[in-house]
Predict the structure.
Amino acid sequence: MPKKGSKNPVRRGEAGRRGDDVRSDIYVAVEIRGSGGLQIDLTSKVAAFYGGSIEETATRVLGELKVKHAAVEIDDRGALPFVVTARVEAAARRAGCDGKALPERTVAVQPTDRDRLRRSRLYLPGNEPKFFINAGLHQPDGVILDLEDSVHPDEKDAARTVVRNALRCVDFHRAERMVRINQLPLGLDDLDEIVPESPNLILIPKVENADQVREVGARIDKLHKTKDTPVWLMPIVESALGVENAFEVAQATESVVAITIGLEDYTADLGVPKTVEGNESLYARSRLANAAHAAGVQAIDSVFGDVGDEEGLRSWGSRSRSLGFEGMGCIHPRQIQPIHESFAPTEAEIEKALKIVAAFDDAEAKGLGVVSLGTRMVDPPVVLRAQRLVEQAKRAGLVDPEAAGSRGDK
Amino acid sequence: MSGNDLVINAAGRAVPIHVNGKDQVPYQGVAAYEPAGTKRAPPIRSCKDYPESGDKRVPDLETALEKCGLSDGMVISSHHHLRNGDQVGLAALQAAATMGAKDLMWFPSASFPCHSPVIDLMDRGVVHHIEGSMNGPLGAYCSAGKMRGLGVLRSHGGRWQAIQDGEVKVDIAVIAAPTADPFGNSDGSHGPSACGSLGFALADSLYADHVIVVTDNLVEFPCIPWQIQGNNVDYVVEVESIGDPSKIVSGTTQITRSPDRLLIAEYVARFIRDAGIMRDGFSFQAGAGGIALAFVQFLKQMMHQAGVKARFVRGGSTQYLVDLLQEGLTDYILDGQTFDLAGVASIASDPRHVATSPFTSYNYHGKGNFASMVDASVLGATEVDLEFNANVNTHSDGILLHGIGGWQNCLFAGCSILAIPSFRDRIPVIVDEVTTMTGPGELIDVVVTERGIAINPKRQDLLDRVSDSDLPIRPIAEIKDEVEKIMGGKPEPARLTDNPVAVIKWVDGTVLDTVWQVED
């Protein structure tokens, strides 16, 4: 394993991955020396095209970290520049260097709305940068750069650097940029590195009470002063206790926009197997969805684990929608479209809702207190639901935003 | 070779005017070259010289080669219907080596990694050079300038054309036959080494001076069905095994699981649907690459939904094309080669699954061919440039990687589509100028990448037809710029010498481009 910290007299650090099966990543070993300048030994699959560029990048990063003399071994498997910089920095830090070498920011920070669509959120393992660059092309509503379960405990620091650089350099297109931090207190260290890069949303794992959310919120407030790009929170409830406290969690801070559930840990906590039907979590998910709606935040479901079973996914998605959820997680880009379709209102629902909204607008215009459709009176909650549905359909591109006259008060 | 021997052809590429001692015609344009003269004919033979019993068996390959008059400098051909499982091509050359032959030209319809030992035969002077595809170690050997002659790469149709036109005179053709009778009638759809069609060997059987059939499944006359006619065969050799069945066909062909490649495949299918190409009676060609297989799956769903049926599809056949046939989504499979067990079983049993040859499918010096009658072809490439010129032969660093296969021939389809990722690792696929030109841009209609679909501006009709679709149609330069930004700038150009190591022939036998030796 990598030798970390200045306690080690050799002052050597390594980061990244090597091997014939590694793609779009790079291995870097930095051995700090007392003299002799930078000696870079480069092997690269793309040496003919970008060998010079890789050496320049390594030299620049080490310069920013004040490394003047070092033996640097690089074994590149076609890593993109944001990965090269992250790996060189991680190796140098493991060799005891301090500081950051931020790559030039090439993507703008786009704020997101509290109520935006969050039907699909695509998990991207934080230490697997090869999956990052094209993630946005699959058009998920959000991408989750994951620092938690998909990252080996020894690689947390390296993954943090990759994710931080990705937030500066990778275009995720229209996807909301989310980061799942580690369980507290390690997650607070993640925030120090990540929040200055203005992610749109932080997922907090294994939340059981409101204080944990407030602790994250307070740290973010300290790190993030720019109020025009809010950093939203999505706590993940993953235990029986968390489910019982779902309402206080959902209400913990103003920044919470959604709560979700992690079913692997939840079913483990109950001591029951997780099934495709999900009956074992029906109570928990219903309770969570209810708590979310009571608190005025979005209820988001867990993931569906079998990538090959599209029918099962669709079936889970439509049952999930019927429980009050507005979206779920994806572990593979091919799950995105089926999820969007599962959470979309049906044509019949949209048509009916448009009629109700039109009747409401008509009644408003005429100053009538009662909304009626044909010979039937429409109750106010029905109008409200119709307005929400039309609003959701508009965001999903199922209804022309100009055509329907809804005021959608959500 | 000195610079004086080069000329700039109509594609703007520098090409040699002599190749392996023969005068060449530089490429003149897609359809500019006018051939003249008559086709080559093999020598006239007489029944009096062949056994009346029809039994042409000889004990082994060496005897057969000796009876064919093997001598130094001859052209020996073999074929790739056994793909990476082939043992016959190498066995023939090694038998020739044992007999002391020198300076042979090996003329395979394609080579595979299993043929790497030919390097040793070239080092020993047995084989002078190869005219045929070279990949892996053979490609690296040729690219390093170690071959004594120039490599000549031809498409499947171009190989037929070269044989038929007499550009290449095959002295001895050695045909691996999964089933044959003592007379030489041969077929590929049965036997322990069954591979499907033997179409690649057909031209050699018709035009070579001598023809040897090698089989590991000898049946009594008649071998039914036959694709190679025994009347063209001189000798039949029975061997233990002609190939490794596990490398001849795959048990099942796997569709790509890469989300990015699946996205490309989905865009291809949607393009074919939205451009109105998918309609009753249409046709398409798809190979066995991961994206091509996945595209067939997407198109199949769309055909079901729209209630549309194809008249024919062209393979490389696989389970996925066989499914189309069996689900009533196409009337016929016209098969050039057969990639998996389902394909082999289908061609052996279903009369609607028909073996074709490079003559019917691809030969440009014929009275038409099937390739131009196909509505859409879906192809790969290692590079494509801003003029839509494409490269399938070399890596961006200039090293020979692949043969041409049917790729050039398929460009004549009504709509030729390159389905390619916009970059591989950190190597952009869309470039300013291709390292090697395998196909001229005027024949390449659409480039589908995961970042968008670029339509050749020459195809305004296609641009119009998809103008209302929600597909991501983008200018090719825009996709290229975006990828270069992601890569951190343009790649440094390939480091090539001015020493030619191979040439790329166009479908009409003219020289389209040169492959240059790479720097050490």
User: Anything to note?
Assistant: The first helix of chain B runs from residue 61 to 67. Chain B has 15 helices and 29 strands. The interface with chain A takes residues 259-260, 262-263, 396-397, 424-427, 450-451, 485-489, 491-492, 494-495 of chain B (CB under 8 Å).
